[in-house]
Write a structure and sequence with these properties.
- The chain has seven helices and eleven strands.
- Helix 5 runs parallel beside helix 7.
- The strands form two sheets. Strands 3-2-1-4-5-11-10 form a seven-stranded mixed sheet, sandwiched between helices.
- The longest helix is centred in the first third of the chain and has 16 residues.
- The protein folds into two domains: 173 residues, Vaccinia Virus protein VP39 (Rossmann fold, 3-Layer(aba) Sandwich), CATH 3.40.50; 58 residues, S-adenosyl-L-methionine-dependent methyltransferases (Single Sheet).
- The N and C termini lie far apart (43 Å).
- The protein is α/β, with parallel strands linked by helices.
Length: 247
Amino acid sequence: MNINNDFSSSAKYYDIMQDNSRFRKSVKFVIKTLKEKKITSVLELGCGSGYYLFPIKNAGYNIEGLDIGKNILNEVKKKDKVVKLYLEDMSKFKIDKKFDSIICLNSSLVLLPDFTLMKKTLKKVHEHLNDSGLFMLDVPNHEVEIKESNNTQDSEKFKLKNGVMHVVYRDYKKENKWIAEEKCFVNENGKYFEFEEKFAELIFNPNKLEKELKKIGFNIEVMYGGRSGENFNKNRSRRRFYICKKS
Ligand SMILES: C[S@@+](CC[C@H](N)C(=O)[O-])C[C@H]1O[C@@H](n2cnc3c(N)ncnc32)[C@H](O)[C@@H]1O
């Protein structure tokens, strides 16, 4: 199975596989935070199929999306032909305007292959934010995730409009990467087919990340332990959800 960090195999089914009550709660939390901070314009890096982007847009924000995956951006275009999208690498992008907020959610940042590219991305974020702009960054707390889930296998069944999909998940650590494999078996419109997805997250050092954020010019206002603003607990939290302000 090849590593495929742009989700091109699973693009069509991405929303269905992601949608659950925890993610729906997270979307509400992100919108609430944007509202509290009086944000108007938003850029989402690694926007994927628009799972966060569309509810944010529908809540009245002027949001644009950037992603490296052509297939996954096509899923966004199917839903909305006018939303502004950039088919770009988040570590290299240049847009001729600035935003009140840049968000990079659900581990998109750690899909970059190494820490140098992560640092380049953080600099890009800083460059593209208005003064006092807000950076929302949701990355895994790998220490806990790996302790709890290394070498595990699980499965899930999804109801499709005209069929069903069964997915087998495997998670394991390999060198400095946290790997997720998904084998998907579909029965849709009376046809059987299958596809697979494999992505590799960079196991980063959180202290180094925080030091870099500060060096680049961000104040870390708060770090939550979950996607919906849960308190951080070093031994239990599976996320590091940073709210940063451009200083
Ligand atoms: C786990 S998905 C998250 C999608 C979306 N934020 C969500 O929560 O539904 C990660 C996304 O990051 C994108 N991605 C990976 N590497 C990227 C890069 N270097 N530049 C821009 N996007 C990237 C992938 O194509 C994918 O759509």
